[in-house]
Specification:
Elements (H helix, E strand, L loop, with lengths): L2 E5 L2 E4 L4 E8 L6 E8 L6 E7 L5 E3 L7 E6 L4 E6 L8 E9 L14 E2 L3 E6 L1
Parallel strand pairs: 2-11
Antiparallel strand pairs: 1-3, 3-8, 4-5, 4-9, 5-6, 7-8, 9-10, 9-11
Length: about 130
Amino acid sequence: QVQLVESGGGLVQAGGSLRLSCAASGRTFSSYVMGWFRQAPGKEREFVAAIRWSGGSTYYADSVKGRFTISRDNAKNTVDLQMNSLKPEDTAVYYCGARRYTGYAPGPNTYEYDYWGQGTQVTVSS
């Protein structure tokens, strides 16, 4: 049974940093893409970043390029999201997702993902 557990959310001032972590278990993820999405109140869940577990290719939404970095730790089976220069508009619940790699760059669509974590709240105060 696949399980994704996010941690690391919290309250931070604008300009600050947070590091989110997603612990993945229940299968081998070497053929998977791991993604981070976020959902603000009243809005759709949106793509933030993704990484191929094998090879480490990364993908980012334009809104977070240069500020956020996604990485994976094979030994710990975790996928992290380092968030720097945070802005109030980054406030959201952040979700970790997993999907099989299909040979194409992963798109920003939630329906492409098979597994989800429960989410972790990130609040950025101005």
